[in-house]
Predict the 3D structure of the following.
Amino acid sequence: MVRSAENQRTVFACRDCGNETAKWSGFCPSPACGSALPLVEVKPALKAPSAASWNSTGRQPLEELSQLDPEDRPLISLPGQEINRVLGGGIVAGSVVLLTGEPGVGKSTLLLQIAGYLACQGKHVLYVTGEESPHQIKIRSQRLGITGEGIFILPESDVDTILEKLDECRPALVIVDSIQTLYCREVASGPGSVAQVRESGLRLMRWAKSSHTPVFLAGHVTKDGGVAGPRVLEHMVDVVTYLEAQDAGAYRILRNTKNRFGSTSEVGVFEMTGLGLTEVTDPSKAMLAQRYHEAVGAAVVPVLEGNRPLMLEVQALTSPSHGPTPRRVGNGVDYNRLLMLSAVASRRGGLDLAGQDIIVNVAGGFRISEPAADLPVVLAMASSLLNRALKNDLTVFGEVGLSGEVRPAPQAQRRVQEAARLGFSHCILPAANREQADPPPGMQLIYVGSVREAVQKALGDGISQVPPEIPPALRQETALAGV
Ligand code: TYD
Ligand code: MG
């Protein structure tokens, strides 16, 4: 990223994707970005960094790919299963991990806990803090039950001073909280600006690679993308992981959008407790623990978080509306999707929901964005409307289309297996998934082609007899009778 003297010119950078243009053009010209934030002026660093890149010394030996050992990468394994899974087995030497998330989600807590794990193994961790005072970190560590032995706090924002300290004390892990607070003296703009974040990130990355020391960077992202910074780092770091809060709940999901050492479909599930983030190793079990048996208006759905199936309970409450327009409230489900599903259930499913207020909620404060949760939402509404509970051992998944057809869901077998593992014995699923799903022992698969068929199979008779509007080809008969 070093520019030669003649092309060290001011450029204009997008605050979202980090794309640079030589000319001011108002907004990011990249069609893939489409950011609504205006471009910002980025002045180049006055002093060129010492090396163009961490490995450009010109003395690197050639290595044949076939001779390299894939296992030959020093890993620091963490005791936590969830965090190891997300990182691809542990912390890779020399890797740079960007941990992002909204303010208050628990980034500093997780980083201090990671520091605590390593300190327990007798390793030294350097915690660079630009946001909180050492005293505040001490209070947090006390809450988390971390003694603090082996964790060294450096309240500093100047990158060059930080790098000097790092060379001096050679820790096993460096934590920078947060990257937005760092600055390089040579860069004209203020901390948190694109230029500062990029230059600081670059210098830390070079240090990590040359010293083979892992570095964790915390970075804030707000919903409106207003804070400049972390996204410009995404291109250079090895792992980008988001810590997401689930609506109002205490659950947190750690999810990668980039991982050079492992899969991005692995997710870690945590719960924010009084003792910090604790692992939820069996999230399905935890989510169903509070379940009411045979509750009216509840349906259990196996959703996928990354590659991981998770059983969640969708609840619906319908009650006659007293206002001029019936209300629809969705907690944990998309509002527009809820409007569509209630309309499809009324018009194609034979459920008279037109005069009903509908409230849909996902238990545990989770947010479901998968279309596979469509059919459970419809069945939960149907159950509430008909005041009849779904069978306790029944789970359901499937996408719903505007014609009332039930469309296939990806990874049907994974979902069915997770349901079977948790003791479910019946599963209503799309007929189009017939080829992909084998019933696990003790599990009966009930295939449906339409919403109407699903309501009939799940709740039996009692739905109003509107003429079928589903094309006959979509009305697939099932080999099994209703539950
Ligand atoms: P924090 O790690 O400071 O968030 P971030 O660094 O992402 O801004 O955590 C903030 C919240 O976590 C704060 O509102 C309090 C809560 N919290 C707990 O509930 N339990 C705990 O043990 C700790 C340390 C924090
Ligand atoms: Mg913090």
Summary: The first strand starts at residue 11 and ends at 13. Residues 107-108, 131, 177 surround magnesium ion (ligand 2) (CB under 6 Å).
